[in-house]
Amino acid sequence: MNEKVLVARQLPEKFINQIKEYAEVDVWNSELEPMPREAFLERSQDATIVITTLSEQIDETFFNNATHIKGVVNLAVGFDNIDVKLAEEKCVVVTNTPEVLTETTAELGFTLMLTAARRIVEAVQYVHNGEWKSWGPYLLAGKDVHGSTVGIYGMGSIGEAFARRLKGFNCKVLYHNRSRKEEAEQQLNVEYRTMDELLNESDFVVCTAPLTPETKGIFNRETFKKMKNSAILINIGRGGHIVESDLIEAIEQQEILGAALDVVENEPISDDHPFLKMDQVIVVPHIGSSSIATRDKMVQLCVDNAKQIMSNQDPITPVKLK
User: Fold this and answer.
1) Which residues are catalytic?
2) What is the domain range of residue 22?
3) Residues 269, 305: one domain?
4) Predicted confidence (pLDDT) per residue in 189-224, tens digit
5) How far is CA 309 from the centre of its chain?
6) Do residues 258 and 281 lie in contact, with contact meaning Cβ atoms separated by under 8 Å?
7) Would you say 207 and 236 are in contact if contact means Cβ atoms under 8 Å apart?
8) Which terminus of the chain, N or C, has fewer Cβ atoms within 10 Å?
């Protein structure tokens, strides 16, 4: 049997052609529409490697079905769609795409912060709706970012990249992490805080943390009560960090000012989601790493990881349980 790579999303031909040099390739025919579960399971039965997105669940059912699998190559830095422990038990290699998307994702988070603070989405809609008939001294007045206090929850590589971007804005930068990072404190002029202190002091709270059992639902009713009523929450981590019903209530009760989200709990967001009716909430479709250059780097890393696994060599960016 020829070794096969199943690619769960349509990718540029230049990358598919690289895979064809060492394996048979089976590519799903859509970039935007996820591969149906049944089709994914059926077409992975004879696959040696699958290149997946966060939409594909790699669980016990998958492993029982994909009996020839050697590697799961995830086109994302996160891997909460994969049962890594079970993969290790099955001697299946798992890889992700860390580091290459760090700067681009931080950039998107910074964009969301500025957009929410200065009410840019509302302003664009105001003009598009033909409402701009005159000028007023407080027309669509927003919040300043410069001179504010920004709290970063999760001081990994993306959190550090976000902190670097705040240097030119004369912000006081706080962070909370499961362990202190003294080197980052010195290099980036950031200050460690307990979670409660960070929430109490910050004008903007930025979530960049990975989703784990400990961080799931970390932003909830009790969390929001500890934030300033003028604070804005930015999430470029995972949707599961936020209890969405609690966020809606907090904004409606004016416990916090608003939120700007690259991620939601269930993606894509439903057409009738309350967020979409709230001027104080900005939602974009999980585009944190979505620049052409960065996505090309991510896909190339996946292709290179797949080739390494196929050649029985160590992959470039393996995922391992700590």
Assistant:
1) 238, 267, 286
2) 4-99+292-310
3) no
4) 999 999 999 999 999 999 999 999 999 999 999 999
5) 26
6) yes
7) yes
8) C
Positive or negative CA dihedral for 108, 112, 114, 118? positive
Q: Do 23 and 45 fall within a single domain?
A: yes
Query: Helices 157-165 and 102-117, interaxial angle, to 10°?
Result: 50
Q: Does residue 1 surpass a pLDDT of 60?
A: no
37 with 58: CB under 8 angstroms?
no
258 DSSP β-pair partners: 232
Cα 155 to the chain's mean position, in Å? 14
Query: What tokens appear for 38 in the block?
Result: 């049944």
* Residues 232 and 143: beta-carbon distance below 8 Å: yes
- By residue count, the chain amounts to 322
User: pLDDT band at 2, cuts 50/70/90?
Assistant: confident
Phi/psi of residue 237, nearest 5 degrees:
-90, -100
Q: Taking a C-beta distance cutoff of 8 angstroms, is the pair 202, 151 a contact?
A: yes
Residues 6+ apart with CB under 8 A from 40: 6, 8, 56, 62
Nearest alpha carbon to residue 50 among 97, 3, 2, 98: 3
Distance CA 107, CA 104 (A): 5
Q: Dihedral angle at the C-alpha atoms of 283, 289, 290, 296, nearest 10 degrees?
A: -160
Rg (CA), the chain: 21
